[in-house]
Amino acid sequence: MTRNRYVRTPGAAVQGLTDRIRQFTPNWFAVTMGNGIVFLMLNALPVHFSGQRTFAEALWCVDIVLYAVFAAMFAARCVFYPETIRPLLHHPLQSMFLGALPMGLAPIINGIVLFAGHDSGAATLAFELWCIDAVAAVVVAVGVPYLMFTEQSHAFERLSAVLLLPIVAPEVAASSAATLAPHLDVATARFAIGAGYALWAISVPLAFSVLTIVFFRLLIHKLPHRDLAPSSWLTLGPIGTGALGLLTLGQAAPLAFAGTPLASVALLARDLGVLGGLLLWGAGLWWLLTAIFFTLRYRAEGLPFNLGWWGFTFPLGVFTLATLGLYRVTGFAGFAAIGFALAMLLGGLWLVVLSKTLRALAGGQLFHAPCLVPAH
């Protein structure tokens, strides 16, 4: 939720490629997160329409291209402008978006087995990429907080749910492990599921401690600046992903561990996954309603567009997937109805954010790194 304003100043020069590389920020990977959760949601819908899978697969392909372009630009910034990396790592907002790098890759990995699973090498490729993604998620989840504790400057009144971004990355990888497991050989599936639970444990308890801080900060200092309005939805992310992870890991475990000494534990994990998913879903419902009320209040004040608007999509998307997952395991029609309504909301928000992003990109105002602005 950076302050990249969609306001073209008079006489502003059009940025060249080299300047765009220098000004490239990790916020852009939130675009692949938002697009990714939309095609995963389309694939999970309990209702079907003509062209549904084709559209989802097309979005997956677009996401691959976008991620490759963003990765190349970020790598080019690191190589050609290494002096800009230290300011990025020390910036209290920009550094949080490093968590978007592994999280933006996770939907693409899921798409490999969902849309290209007929290829015998697809599962192997997906697993290899998942290993890279999981390691990157842990590095970010440990490294960024370490910088927060030792190098960055944070004031309590300026804190927001953006702090969750690097911490949530491991649990996103955990839910991805459950998607891959049914497509892997038994030994690899067991490893992925076990690692998935470890990744979940790294992320979710820590995320709830941050949610406590966010709640207390809201109580004392009220709502953050309107530029940070989309951060209200980030609180939904660790809860939705946490519920989805418990559900999917629990569903994958019995098959992977059948006939082993851990078979009974796997069955327990399945049952606890449903119970834990229900509990987390209820907690997420409170944060969802709060985010909606906050956004309506912000909207009355006027919401300036920035790349942080992609925060409206991914957290809502994972909560939607968790809702649809609960419908599949419980058969309760209420979850199907709520999930469908949330999917419609997600689709509407995605279209709005995508259109504004394209307009702002055409205006040449989205490549701006606040960490490179001299302090006054």
UniProtKB/TrEMBL annotation:
Gene3D superfamilies the UniProt entry points to: Voltage-dependent anion channel
Location in or out of the cell: Cell membrane
MF term (GO), any: sulfite transmembrane transporter activity
Pfam families cross-referenced by the UniProt entry: SLAC1
Membrane-topology descriptor: Multi-pass membrane protein
Transmembrane segment boundaries: 28-49, 55-76, 97-116, 122-147, 159-178, 198-220, 232-252, 272-295, 307-327, 333-353
A cellular-component GO term for this protein: plasma membrane
Protein name in the entry: C4-dicarboxylate ABC transporter
Species, as recorded: Trinickia violacea
